[in-house]
Queue: 2 jobs
Job 1
Amino acid sequence: VSELIDDKILNLGLNHRFIAIICGGVEDYRTYNKWNKVLSIIDKKESEVLPVVLIGSDNGAASANKIISQFKDRKNLINAVGNYTLSETKSIMSCCKLVIGPDGGLLQIANAMDKKIIALFAQIDCRLRFTEATDYKCLYDDRSVDNITAENISKEICDAIKI
């Protein structure tokens, strides 16, 4: 895989222990805004700081900046939101153990790459996007992914990284 990843991505220092969190979204009901709370819960639960890379397009920049500002002293937190092409973001995801985020294009790219996924869905049945062959866990709310609790997301992340 590394021969397909350019130096710009290799210089991020990602390894298979990193998880990718997708920030932003085009539609409000498919945009999760509580990643900072999720990270706070994980940091309290895990004895070792979980390496995280934030990914997404420009529509996730405000969310990513909020996370980076709250966790400025946290090790292994990389903000890649809005700084990479789609192809480069795909390379970033290829280096990660787990991809977490709401239903959208990056989640589907992770699916196509056979990555382990925690998917946040609202209003759409996740079985319309994934097959039984996909390694995913779906968290769902009838109205908005923002209604999915940070506690539930952090629990699924902690469970997934222990496998």
Job 2
Amino acid sequence: QPVRLAIMADEKRFFASDEYEALHKRIISGQQLTKQEWTDVEQMLKTVYPGFTIQLRGLLPMSELEYQTCLLIKLRIQPKDIASVLIRDVSTISTVRSRLYNKVFGKKGSTKDWDNFILSIGA
């Protein structure tokens, strides 16, 4: 319980930070992120969820699109904004999410199932 409360406090600080706000605004405006900005996103997530990227990479080999989609889900970015920043259709992002669920769990699952799973990692 104390660990969960500490994570919740870290999350609250993170999602209220100027750094997150600036990133969020860039993403929802549809601006592509540079290679350095993707590295910064990973660093931000490691600060709040220390084991997240390691657990994510350990699930299965992922394409860059799959990995970046998962990072953005963890940042609580909406699918339409994920599609925009990754320059894909929303349907492509939905397909990525449901296929990842199937690959990891060996059964059909909804996009929401995948999102909930990603949100639970490192939490």
